[in-house]
Amino acid sequence: MTNTGRHYLAIPGPSVVPDRVLNAMHRASPDIYSGELHEIMPGIYEDLKKLARTKHYVAIYIANGHGAWEAANTNLFSPGDHALALVTGRFGEGWAQSVEALGVTVQRLDFGKQSPVDPEAVAATLAADTDGRIKVVLMSHVDTTTSVRNDVAAVRAALDRAGHPALLAVDCIASLGCDVFEMDQWGVDVMVSASQKGMMTPPGLGFVWMNEKARQASLGSRWRTPYWDWLPRIDPSRFYQLFGGTAPTHHLFGLRAALDMLVREEGVEAAWRRHERLARTVWTAFDAWGEGEDGQPTGIGLNVAAPSSRSHAVTTVKFVSPHATELRNWTQAHAGVTLGVGLGMAPEGDFGADGYLRIAHMGHVNTHMTLGVLGAIEAGMSALNIPHGSSALARAAAVLAS
Fold it and tell me: pTM of this prediction?
């Protein structure tokens, strides 16, 4: 049934890559020593800073999001250091583990899989660290597994109230370009992201933004290695130092096209508004599906209760198990739509894991793409006899029309 037409990948990364970006990458290899590649780099750095809302520094790595973590880790820490990790899902825990593997002592504040970081708990923990041993506070802006969105500015305020000198490092891999993020205004010292989600470029580029305070702090790191060291990448004497070696040529041409679309044409704030509207559309549909015809809940619902704590890039939803897995299989086989697995929401092999899925609405998405995904989901629920409420698509369309 799905052997014609374009398959739609609605997973939270890699996201849909615009044809314009693919076309920019579909070219012969360029000269890496002079010419066009050198000429486009100043504009790329300028637009990356605009995207993060910072006037400071950004380093580019040939890496995925895990590599961006590694880049931040090796520049920030030395063996024996201490960190505080604020965990709201699998990727918050993943960053904590990657830091721990370097010999850093990591204290965790785990807020579960449905709630955001509590700034008061952060302030209390930092106030108790009277020796100032915690060097960095690590957090996710959005955890891709749970779709919890954290209030970064409130966490910065908690650090300030505690009078603690720790740096604030934020993972924006899922959220950058989709959710409102103000690096300088919110007092973020380090931010990491990657190319394959809101930035609409294939996986392969990792980014680390840092302010002057973080740059100075990195000078004493004993984990800095020739490849991961961000100093030559932000202040190179030779072009190759921007990338620790050969440039990721075709990714850079694709990134240039993506930044043209996102930063220079649509505009970052307009992109934020687009993603907010599409997210509300998805939420509205699932609210309707969760309302049974007889007034009884159907067992379908959003993972995060408070809209203010939900991501505008991805939505995690719960079904009665195993309906989520059955629905994912149906939409992929019969509608050409691939939905995201419920990653990390239940232990591997647990029956409950088949009760979760994720819908991405990040990057290169618009009204008809989102409504198409919702229509495929409703068709699948009808075909599989999964109980669900009515009028979801009409209510979702009303959000987009408002």
Answer: 0.96
